[in-house]
Amino acid sequence: MTWLVISDALKRAGVDFDHAFTEYPGHGVELAKEAVEKGYGPVIAVGGDGTVNEVVNGLVDDDGRGRATLGIISAGSVGDFGHMMGLPRTYASSCRMFADYKKTTVDLGMAEYHDKGQKVRRFYINTAGVGFVSDVVRGADRRMKFIGGTVPYVIGMLPVVMRYHNKDVVLNIDGNRIEERDFVIVVNNGRYLGGGKVFPDADPGDGLLDVAVVGDMSRLQMITTLPRFYVGTHINHDKIRMYQARSVEVDSPQQLPLQVDGELVGETPVSFRVVPSALTVATGGYHG
């Protein structure tokens, strides 16, 4: 039903298009690669942040350089990147945008990590992290994502907080090594995570990653701090440190799960780096 509405809106907007449906995890990467090879552009991802991530990884080369413009019609549970870029919120206005769109150049993040014993490279457009946030992603499973908005993530947070144990980690932020016990490490290109304004001033085109390190908080401290992430006032908390960096490494005596653009993809050790000015995105004008 959703696609019927969107396809009709595209036709009414005078947009000429072909389409294909994903059928399994990773299929979006393959379809985007095929679209590039056939000369399509923009290549539009219809879905949430996970779908956008797959399309991004199909649009870039091995170095993370875009080969076609990315378009987004948000039809998923959160849509954090589209929110930051000021993309239209309705299907009709999203479709009209593609009749006369602008292009904005953005950076990408790159994560190198382990998955089933193999070293893997994956690019991301908005967010990545290890620790508590990865367990929340696991809790906000696919059975709940139909609810939409940030509800699945908020519901998923509370039981995770109650059973979560902080992790011993080794961080390396632009060459500065830190050993400590942390609640969560988030390495973003964008401002939002699960609808929360974790990085209020992040600029996806500044050539830097934005890093939040939440230290050794108790469960009670985290429960009382969580609401502050949704309005951006957490940045003044004495157990939260904010950085900007070009490269970040995270390791741990444990194998910690890694989330990338809201999907669990692998585990530590993981290294992140920024790919500046990597991709063009179709917008109606970036509103910040």
Secondary-structure-based class equals alpha+beta
Work out the radius of gyration.
Answer: 18 Å
Q: In terms of quaternary structure, what is this?
A: single chain
Q: Given this structure, which CATH class of the largest domain is correct?
A: Mainly Beta
Number of strands: 15
In whole angstroms, the N-to-C terminal distance is 32 Å
Largest sheet: 11 strands, antiparallel
Question: How many DSSP helices?
Answer: 8
How does CATH name the architecture of the largest domain?
Sandwich
CATH fold field value of the largest domain: Tumour Suppressor Smad4
Q: What does this 3D model show about the protein?
A:
- By secondary structure, this protein is of the alpha+beta class.
- It folds into two domains: 2-107 and 279-283, Probable inorganic polyphosphate/atp-NAD kinase, domain 1 (Rossmann fold, 3-Layer(aba) Sandwich); 108-276, Sandwich (Tumour Suppressor Smad4).
- It has eight helices and 15 strands.
- It has helices at residues 2-12, 27-37, 49-59, 80-84, 91-97, 132-139, 151-163, 219-229; strands at 43-47, 70-74, 102-115, 118-124, 128-131, 167-173, 176-182, 184-188, 192-193, 196-197, 209-214, 240-245, 247-251, 257-260, 263-283.
- The strands form three sheets. Strands 3, 4, 5, 6, 7, 8, 11, 12, 13, 14 and 15 form an eleven-stranded antiparallel β-sheet that branches. Strands 1-2 form a two-stranded parallel ribbon. A two-stranded antiparallel ribbon has the order 9-10.
- Helix 6 (132-139) packs across helix 7 (151-163).
- The protein is globular and about 55 Å long.
- Mean pLDDT is 89; it is low at 142-149.
